Amino acid sequence: MNVDLTKSMTVSAAGMEAQTQRLRVIAENLANQSTTASAPGGDPYRRKTITFENQLDRASGVETVKVKEIGTDKGELPRRYEPANPAADAQGYVKLPNVDSFIEMMDMREAERSYNANLAAMQASRSMMNRTIELLK
Amino acid sequence: MDPTRIGIFDLAQKRMAWAEQRQAVLAKNIANANTPHFQPADVPDFAKTLSGVTGMGMAQTHPTHLTGSGASSAGLVKPRPMARSPDGNGVAMDQQLTKVADTETAQSLTTTIYKKYMGLFGIALGKGGP
Predict the structure, then answer these.
(1) DSSP 3-state assignment of B71?
(2) Is B109 on the interface with A (CB under 8 A)?
(3) Which pTM value belongs to this model?
(4) What is the dihedral of CA A129, B52, B4, B117, to 10 degrees?
C-alpha cells in the first residue's frame, strides 16, 4: 500500500506549518504598521506577502504544501503632511507603510480557519489510525 | 486460515485501504486550501474501486514486480469545484471537512464490523463470546 495514515498526518502538519508562517508574516505587518524611514525621504516598511505552493516532499514521497516565497507588497505608499517628522522629505511629506490593518485582520482570520481545518483533518487521521490499531486487541 | 480469502475480511480490507487513500487526498486538499491555482482531487466511489474500473496500476505477472509509485494517484478524479476564489484555488473547506467526516465514519464502521466478525470466529472456536 502506497499511502498510509502517517503520510496524511505529515501533509496536515505541513499545512499547519505553512499557516503558522503566514501568521508570523501578518504579525510582522501589524507590528510595523507605523514604521517610517529614519532618513528624510526614505522608504518606510513595506507590507510583506506570503505565497504557498504544492510541492512534492521527496523524503516521504507525498505532496505537501510549502511556503513559496515571502515577497513585498509593491502597492503605493500613502503620504501624510508632517513636516516635524524626521523622515519628512523637502516638501514636508512622510511616506507611510502600506499596511491596512483590516486586510491583515481578515488574513489572520483566514489563517486561523485554515489551521483549524488542518488540525481537524489530522485528528480524523489519528482516530482512524487508532481504530485500526484497536483491531489487534 | 487466510482471512483475506473470506469475503467479508477481504471487503473490509479494501474498504479500509480506500478510506486511508481518501484521507490522504483530503489532507492534501485541506493543506493546500490557500495555494493559488490548486484544484482539489478526490478518490472515486468505493463501488467503482471495487468493480476495478479505476485499476490504473501496472499489471503484475510476478509477485516480485514493482507496482510503480504512480498507481495510487493515477485513479484520482477532479470534481468540478463548487466555488473558486480570485487566486484560482478551488478548495471549498466545508465540503472537504464533510468528506473527512464521511471517510472517518466509513472507516469506523468497517473496523467495527471486522472486529465483530473476528469475534464470531472466537465463539466458533469456543473461546467465549463477547
Answers:
(1) helix
(2) no
(3) 0.81
(4) 60
pLDDT digits (tens, 9 = 90+) for A15-25: 999 999 999 99
Residue B95 forms contact with A (CB below 8 Å)? no
Dihedral Cα A107, A110, A111, A116, nearest 10 deg: 160
Residue type, A70: I
- Output the pLDDT for position B70: 46
Cell 475480511 identifies what position?
A: B9
Strand stretches in chain A, DSSP E? 48-57, 62-72, 79-81, 93-95
The amino acid at residue A61 is G
Count CA within 13 A, CB hemisphere, residue B63. 0
Do residues B88 and B33 lie in contact, with contact meaning Cβ atoms separated by under 8 Å?
Answer: no
From chain A, pick out residues whose CB is under 8 angstroms from the CB of B32: 15, 52, 54, 65
Neighbours of B90 (CB within 10 A): 19
What's the count of helices (H) and strands (E) in chain B, helices before strands?
4, 0
Instruction: Identify the pLDDT of residue B2.
Output: 65
Contact at CB, B27 and A121, closer than 8 angstroms: yes
Q: Do A15 and B38 touch (CB under 8 A)?
A: no
Q: pLDDT tens, A92-114?
A: 899 999 999 999 999 999 999 99
CB-based burial label for B36 (10 Å; 0-12, 13-18, 19+) = middle
Distance between CA atoms of A129 and B58, rounded to whole angstroms?
A: 28
B110: its cell numbers:
468497517
Rounded to the nearest 5 degrees, what angle is found at the Cα of B44, between the Cα atoms of B39 and B49? 150
Angle between helical axes of A101-134 and B93-124 (0-180°, round to 10): 10
